[in-house]
Design goal:
Helix content is 46%, strand content 20%. The chain contains 13 helices and 21 strands. The strands form 4 sheets. Strands 1, 2, 3, 4, 5, 6, 7, 12 and 13 form a 9-stranded mixed β-sheet that branches. The longest helix has 76 residues.
Length: 654
Amino acid sequence: MQKLRNSPIFRALGGKLGARQDLRSILLIAACCLTLATLGSVQLSWIKRANNAQRQQVMAAVRSSIRVFNRGLHSEVSHLLTVFRAEPGWSPSGRARRLAESHFVWHESSGHGPAIKRILFHDASSQATPQLAELKLAEQRWEPIRPEHGYQGLEVRLRSASSRHRRVISPSWLSTWLYYPDCSALVRPVATIAREPVSGRYELQFTGYLVLQLDVEHIRQSILPALVRGHFRATAGNVLFDVAIAVDDEVTDFFRSDRADTSDPDVGTESASDATTLSSGGDRPMAGWSETADVRRQVLLTMSSVPGPVARLGGIQRIALRSNVPEPDSIEIARFPRSRQRAEESDGETGVLPFTPDRPRLFLAGDRQHRLEVVVKHVNGSLEEVLALQYQRSLVMGLGLLLLLAGAMALVVVSLRRASKLASMHLEFATAVSHELRTPVTAVRAMGDNIAEGVLGTSEKALSYGKLIRDEGRRLSEMIEQTLKLVSLDSGSGRYDVVPVDTAAVVAEAAEHVRPIIDRAGFVLERSDANDIPHALADETALRQSLGNLLSNAVKYGLPGRWVKLEVAATSGDKKPEVEISVHDRGPGVPPKEARSIFEPYYRSVSAKDSKVPGSGLGLNLAKRMVHGMGGRLTLRSVPGQGSVFTIHLPVAG
């Protein structure tokens, strides 16, 4: 065996096979590396885009939440001021009843009734003895407040303001409110309609102040968390945020929005079974609220100047409200003298026109301006840092997947390399054995011929043994030649001399070569050759071998028809002219599911195995590869139970 491996033929054949396999391995490895590089580039680009999209989505959601939160807060404040709007025609008893009704409307429409702790009235009609009274909602009456009740500071402020207020006021004052932070009080003037004695004109005379004292703790513990929960958790989804109300950069109220329960359609409803809650007041945010990655938005206060009359009463800063104009409410007073004169001319008796109050105006009273903001920040710190951390995690996961894919590809390449090497070793072994078997098989065939011709005797048994040895030797020799031909095709050493050949002559030679096999099998060979068969472009030897394989197969699998037809024809038309050489049989045919597999090397159909027809499964594969090597093609038409037709298509010479 070692001697065989060291032979020149074996080394040359092995070198060609090894070089071809090395080239395939290199191309496979290069394709794998290119695939990994492409996947890595696409994955990196996708991760960057996903990270940027997530950042934009989160930032847009936060900004939208802040805008909606601002509108909600503005709406609540505007609604409160609109409900308690001016009514100049009220008497003191009627004022108590109407304000009690306004409180009921506010409670029912907003659900925040406890936000108003007390409703007070400062009576400034008598400058000598102004008094402060509280509205008893149940009895709908006013009860004077005694000094020991602790409203001295508020009363001092109201007395100071009333002393600077003009006795005759314009209708716009009835919609003007002042907020005193130290007293948590909303204050607006109250006026009555009176006739001026000299001119007889109707005018608004200042009589005092309506005071709405707010419950700040209820607002901080109930209203603000509800607004934050309703607008931030529902919009931000499962992204956690810290929401704070800051006054002059100092956090006064702090809320943390937890993950929303997506199965609950009412995101504003808290559930004790999961952690969808908002904490307030107890926790304090970490340092760094002034980072550039934070989202800050002004909520209510503006830095613009206030009108002079409001400034004289202590107003220092405008609180911007975005609300609709209140619903019309007729007040018996003419806003302009000319309108009043036209009304007196038309109405005669009352001399008044209906009037709709202005949109509520709200000002902050105090010694300096303030800045009120809502600040939103990711719970884990800067939003940029959180997104950067997520980006790094995505990169690590992507790199891990690429490494896993690279490992899988490496295993596949190694497995293919080993399989190729093993197949090469098997092929080398088969080649070596086939070469070594040529000589003894030739000797066995010669001995069989001699015995069949009566060299050792003319007895019937001796002659039959001789014929058996000769036939089996011939079959074994054909198998060896087919194996060597397959090896030469796989190694690329097979070369074809494609030249114009006499198609009819080559077909006749192939038929005569296979004639003994056909006769011994008891088959009938039918020829059908067209006239003037043109020359075809082919390799004469390869064409003869291909036809021989097809005819041999037709004899092997042509039972029970025992008929073979060899047909030669020329085709033309729209397609390129071709010479068609067809081999017909009347065997069992080829099932459709096996039509492609029968051309694979060493493949044998189920019917062939069941009928125990001898064969190696190389004939059709060699025929197809040789025909394709010459530039032609081999086709199959088969009807199960009726037979098969194998056709060689070759281009016409010239």
